[in-house]
# Entry
Amino acid sequence: MLKVYSSAPLPFQGQKRKFIKDFKEVLQRFDGITTVVDLFGGSGLLSHVTKRERPNVKVVYNDYDYFCDRLANVKTTNEILSRIRPIMNTVADSKKIPEELRMQILSIVKEYMEKGYVDYLTLSSSLLFSGRWAKNFQELSKETMYNVVKQSDYNVDGYLDGLEIVHEDYQDLFSRYKDDRTVLFLIDPPYLATDNVSYKNHWKLSDYLDVLKLLKGTKYVYFTSNKSQIIELCEWIKKNASIGNPFTDVEIRTQRNTLNYNSVFTDIMLVKE
# Structure
């Protein structure tokens, strides 16, 4: 019997585990579906659940961020954590790790980095304060560490079984299936105004709006967040369609501002005479 996961087996920011009950119910509404294409596959959880709920349907998981590499290297990740746990014996749960021990941990991680692959995102969840993520050794070495290490091994057995895995730009993948009325698209792009460290590419507003062009004339399940305010924006555009672009032919000036060492933004002044 195939194992059914209710959440991704490795840490991933943005997975839809809280939507799984609703998502399963919605999946059963679509009659005549032969293929489900998960355009922004992320952790693969939606693809996994789809294949378990609709086993006779072809499920295409677009693993653009290569989550499969993290899964394939879980043995190494478990090995690293098994060497880190004894170091934590003298540190209370959730407490800051002293500098001497932090350097020991970094030494272990560096050893594996020099050998090959290190899953820094998974290690982050066992070493860093909640919500903090490191994507490489340099970032990890700058972080304050805490004893939040996972006490058991990660198990990813069978998670991607039955899925057709691709690694493509979502627009290219969409183009291949857009004219097939038996296809259901799962559309869960990186959210605006949220930290999307689990995704490789930084998304701008224009990128996010481009996704909306895929919705017309297709069957889809689309995810967003109130932080992105995309629904509010679309409702405003509908009410004020005659305005067009008020910034056409304006003069644009910018100023770079720094909040702290890792937070920079640009102020913009627009002038029309």
The chain has a mean pLDDT of 91. The two ends are 70 Å apart (CA to CA). Residues 99-115 form the longest helix (17 residues). The longest strand covers residues 251-260.
